[in-house]
């Protein structure tokens, strides 16, 4: 409860000061933010009108399916950024999340191929994922290493362990759970799409619907104030890294189902995960990361690739546009922060 | 001429061409092919390697030449992306899909979905039961020829360093198996255990350090006779490592025919012993021709071989040049 009040007060005083001193700048920020959202909307509108088949239910479900893995990973990243603060150099970040997914996928697929059932294999994957998350927490909270460096080191540990386990090869896997994820469907929506829907609903409820979530924002936004209010900052920050590891493990099971195997190169996803978490801030009024914003940006990234393909625009453009959008959002975010800190 | 006779003549011509080692431009048959009004989806796992890029271009150029529309998708070596692209491609319902390389284990369920959706599937260098036709080089021949060349250069005895990181890629499996088969007749040629692992990316650097390490481990001249890889990018690193170590008695062997490797083989001072040069651009084009034939209602064989040429130290000057010219024409040097 105290966190709620603290958070609300902090927000109120922010606004009071902002309206007093830099209303103009604030207005400019708002315009830029709405401009960015308008750009997103314009791109979507263009696809709706010109990309053949873009709005068909079948296509949209495809995109949700294609976004499931990225979405689950991006939630992990977002929780770390919420709990550790969104300062790009010193705030929370989990660079190991994609490599962790690769490791979990390798563990899961290897155990399945050795004949262990789904239950044990899933349990092992989730344990490994959370253990890697705990390692991050230990490095960041326990040893006080900058998250950027700590998780970079853990990235290498996880990637190295994956290589050791798989010898850089493709490990094929099949199981009842995987078969269900691949071909199951309910109300015309595939199991993989449901996985994203259910996971999204759960994590949005936890982060945005509970006192726990509010405290997490307090810890990330104002650690000193949170500590003064009696919150255990190390606990909350550690929690986000372990949650991130959990997300990596869940994503790994979805990956293995989609690729029928664990394959090398999961680390490649990191950039998209970061993009999704960063782009998501544009959907929040105060440029803070939110789960809903992350979901929107994950879907946006998915729709972008999909729309380009339907328009028969070279896939090479997708990366460029994605990069340009990240640059835009980071620029806007720094601009907005600048207006806050200059007060 | 009946179709079977025509096929026989063509097969004979191809066989003859392969036997003579002449780089024949195939697909230049008299028949009128057309893809007017057709949309062809093309999915490649990546185009970062010379072979992949040339085949990918060959497909696209030929579809356009025949009046068709191409939906070209390069997954940038990301399995996730290739699957997403294939999934969207199925929803786009093109008249046919041509798939080029990738992880078969990952691809097969999705190739099955392409067929389930009633879309004709053709593959380039990817043997799968789901494809109507797979256009490729005769990897059985290539594998045996490069192995025999290596054994001949070694004088029938010595130790070989083998890169075997991609046994899960069907063409590499065939070439490696052929190497092993050839070696059963030459018991004095031994593969050094454990085998080396080639990787993507950083293939050249990794091969360089692997071979350097092995040469350091076996410092006596003659203790290693050759280095073999199922493609030629590791061969680049291996050749550089051998030369840097001053171990010119070691020769390197690979397959594909990237321009830089052909130049190495042409250079009499280089340690690159031989390379089996494929015609990826022709392979891509031929796959499109097969697609056009199929869409025109003709029967298409389950596989088509486009001839490859063994370029060695003896014939390099003569046999290498056409390949370098083709690469230059394609804008790759």
Describe the structure.
The complex is a heterodimer of chains A (343) and B (333). With 343 residues, chain A is mainly alpha-helical. Chain A has 14 helices and 4 strands. Helices cover 77% and strands 2% of the residues of chain A. In chain A, strand 2 (185-186) and strand 3 form a beta hairpin. In chain A, helix 3 packs across helix 9 and helix 5 (118-142) runs antiparallel to helix 6 (147-166). The longest helix of chain A has 28 residues, at 23-50. Mean pLDDT of chain A is 86; it is low at 1-12. Chain B is of the alpha/beta class and 333 residues long. Chain B folds into 2 domains: 23-136 and 280-301, 3-Layer(aba) Sandwich (Rossmann fold), CATH 3.40.50; 139-277, Rossmann fold (3-Layer(aba) Sandwich), CATH 3.40.50. In chain B, helix 2 (50-65) runs parallel beside helix 10 (280-295) and helix 9 (259-266) packs antiparallel against helix 11. Chain B is elongated, with a radius of gyration of 20 Å. Chain A: This is Inner-membrane translocator.
| Quaternary class | heterodimer
Overall CATH class of the largest domain in chain B: Alpha Beta
Low-confidence stretches of chain A: 1-12
Backbone structural class of chain B: alpha/beta
Key terms for this structure?
heterodimer, A: 343 residues, mainly alpha, ABC transporter involved in vitamin B12 uptake, BtuC, two-stranded antiparallel ribbon, 14 helices, 4 strands, 77% helix, 2% strand, globular, disordered N terminus, B: 333 residues, alpha/beta, Rossmann fold, 2 domains, six-stranded parallel sheet, six-stranded mixed sheet, 12 strands, 17% strand, elongated, Peripla_BP_I (chain B), signal (chain B), Periplasmic binding protein/LacI transcriptional regulator (chain B), SBP_2_dom (chain B)
Question: How are the elements arranged and paired?
Answer:
The complex is a heterodimer of chains A (343) and B (333).
Chain A: H1 2-21, H2 23-50, H3 57-84, H4 97-113, H5 118-142, H6 147-166, E1 171-172, H7 176-183, E2 185-186, E3 189-190, H8 191-209, H9 211-221, H10 223-228, H11 233-259, E4 261-262, H12 270-279, H13 291-310, H14 316-341
Antiparallel strand pairs in A: 1-4, 2-3
Chain B: H1 3-20, E1 39-44, H2 50-65, E2 69-74, H3 79-92, E3 96-100, H4 104-116, E4 121-124, E5 133-136, H5 139-153, E6 158-163, H6 170-184, E7 189-191, H7 203-217, E8 226-229, H8 233-244, E9 251-256, H9 259-266, E10 272-277, H10 280-295, E11 303-305, E12 309-312, H11 316-329
Helix pairs in contact in B: 2-10, 3-4, 5-6, 7-8, 9-11
């Amino acid at each position: 409860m105290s966190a709620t009040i603290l958070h609300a007060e902090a927000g109120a005083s922010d606004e009071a000061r902002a309206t007093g001193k830099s209303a103009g700048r604030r207005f400019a920020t708002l315009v830029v933010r709405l401009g960015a959202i308008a750009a997103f909307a314009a791109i979507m509108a263009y696809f709706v009108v010109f990309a053949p088949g873009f709005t068909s239910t079948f296509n949209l479900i495809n995109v949700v399916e294609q976004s499931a893995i990225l979405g689950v990973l991006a939630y992990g990243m977002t929780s770390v950024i919420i709990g550790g603060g969104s300062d790009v150099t010193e705030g929370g970040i989990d660079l190991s999340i994609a490599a962790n997914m690769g490791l979990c996928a390798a563990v899961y697929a290897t155990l399945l191929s050795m004949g262990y059932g789904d239950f044990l294999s899933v349990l092992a994957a989730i344990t490994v994922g959370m253990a890697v998350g705990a390692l991050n927490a230990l490095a960041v909270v326990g040893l006080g290493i900058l998250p950027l460096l700590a998780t970079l080191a853990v990235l290498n540990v996880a990637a190295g362990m994956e290589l050791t386990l798989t010898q850089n090869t493709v490990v094929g896997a099949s199981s009842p759970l995987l078969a269900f994820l691949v071909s199951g469907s309910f109300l015309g929506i595939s199991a993989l799409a449901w996985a994203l829907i259910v996971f999204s609903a759960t994590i949005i409820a936890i982060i945005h619907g509970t006192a726990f979530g509010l405290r997490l924002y307090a810890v990330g936004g104002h650690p000193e104030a949170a500590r003064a209010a009696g919150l255990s900052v190390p606990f909350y920050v550690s929690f986000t890294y372990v949650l991130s590891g959990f997300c990596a493990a869940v994503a790994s099971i979805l990956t293995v189902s989609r690729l029928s195997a664990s394959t090398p190169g999961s680390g490649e996803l990191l950039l998209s995960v970061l993009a999704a978490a960063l782009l998501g801030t544009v959907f929040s009024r105060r440029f803070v990361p939110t789960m809903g914003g992350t979901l929107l940006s994950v879907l946006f990234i998915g729709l972008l690739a999909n729309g380009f393909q339907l328009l028969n625009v070279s896939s090479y453009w997708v990366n460029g546009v994605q990069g340009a959008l990240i640059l835009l959002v980071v620029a806007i975010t720094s601009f907005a922060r600048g207006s806050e800190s200059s007060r | 001429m009946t179709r079977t006779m025509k096929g026989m003549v063509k097969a004979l011509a191809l066989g003859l061409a392969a036997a003579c080692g002449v780089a024949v431009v195939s697909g230049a048959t008299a028949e009128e092919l057309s893809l007017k009004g057709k949309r062809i989806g093309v999915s490649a796992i990546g185009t970062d390697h010379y072979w992949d890029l040339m085949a990918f271009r060959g497909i696209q150029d030929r579809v356009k030449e025949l009046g068709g529309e191409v939906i070209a998708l390069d997954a940038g070596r990301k399995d996730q992306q290739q699957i997403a692209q294939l999934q969207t491609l199925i929803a786009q319902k093109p008249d046919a899909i041509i798939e080029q390389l990738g992880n078969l284990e990952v691809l097969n369920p999705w190739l099955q979905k392409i067929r389930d959706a009633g879309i004709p599937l053709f593959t380039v260098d990817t043997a799968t039961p789901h494809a109507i036709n797979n256009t490729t080089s005769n990897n059985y021949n290539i594998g045996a020829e490069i192995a025999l060349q290596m054994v001949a250069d070694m004088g029938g005895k010595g130790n070989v360093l083998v890169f075997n990181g991609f046994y899960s890629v069907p063409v590499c499996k065939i070439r490696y198996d052929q190497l092993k088969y050839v070696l059963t007749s030459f018991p004095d040629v031994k593969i050094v255990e454990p085998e080396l692992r080639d990787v993507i990316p950083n293939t050249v650097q990794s091969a360089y350090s692997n071979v350097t390490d092995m040469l350091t481990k076996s410092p006596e001249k003659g203790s290693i006779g050759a280095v073999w890889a199922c493609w030629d990018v590791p061969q680049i690193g291996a050749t550089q490592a051998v030369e840097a170590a001053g171990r010119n008695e070691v020769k390197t062997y690979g397959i594909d025919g990237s321009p830089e490797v052909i130049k190495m083989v042409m250079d009499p001072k280089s340690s690159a012993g031989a390379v089996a040069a494929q015609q990826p651009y022709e392979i891509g084009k031929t796959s499109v021709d097969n697609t056009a034939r199929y869409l025109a209602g003709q029967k298409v064989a389950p596989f088509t071989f486009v001839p490859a040429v063994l370029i060695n130290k003896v014939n390099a000057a003569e046999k290498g040049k056409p390949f370098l010219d083709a690469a230059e024409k394609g804008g790759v040097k």
